[in-house]
Fold:
Amino acid sequence: NAGVTQTPKFRILKIGQSMTLQCTQDMNHNYMYWYRQDPGMGLKLIYYSVGAGITDKGEVPNGYNVSRSTTEDFPLRLELAAPSQTSVYFCASSYKRGEETQYFGPGTRLLVL
Amino acid sequence: DAKTTQPPSMDCAEGRAANLPCNHSTISGNEYVYWYRQIHSQGPQYIIHGLKNNETNEMASLIITEDRKSSTLILPHATLRDTAVYYCIVPPGGYNKLIFGAGTRLAVHP
Structure:
């Protein structure tokens, strides 16, 4: 199993541009999550999904959108990039509710200039 | 939601046991304690979790006090590769939400 994979590894965006961060897991996990981590800080939950077609907001959803059309994929969309979205983005997945053992991807480093 | 308190940093000599404390005095009876770590620039890695009994796996041991208000993560023989930020997390009810605080930065030195 590859686990949780994320692309791209690194990206520079100009203010106002849009992009999609890709996340795929091959563990057949129902739950998937997007976090962001600012320098020297802990992770903050952006959005999560409990299954295909079901998503919900986390702590810091503003400026982001998600969709979950398949079990495997959970892309994160930035529509109008702002410097405040400069961060490292981690995707994670877990098997079931009540088991908070989440498996994280390697992260996408995003720089908005 | 149960909040956790951890020391910001700790040091440990290579080969010695690293004991990382965590206070979670407002924990509810059915809430688990989870430990994750994050090695520089990598995604967080699950270590261990427990409810009320002590737990051990190939990575670490978790000791939870009888009143469940605190716990200690033990790395029995720390290596340089254990240098990381360690997060103690008590997930609130709901859909597997992990709330990451600042954690403890563990430095293992030769």
In short: The interface with chain A takes residues 32, 34, 41-46, 49, 87, 89, 91, 95-103 of chain B (CB under 8 Å). The CA atoms of residues 9 and 105 of chain B lie 4 Å apart. The longest strand of chain B covers residues 18-23.
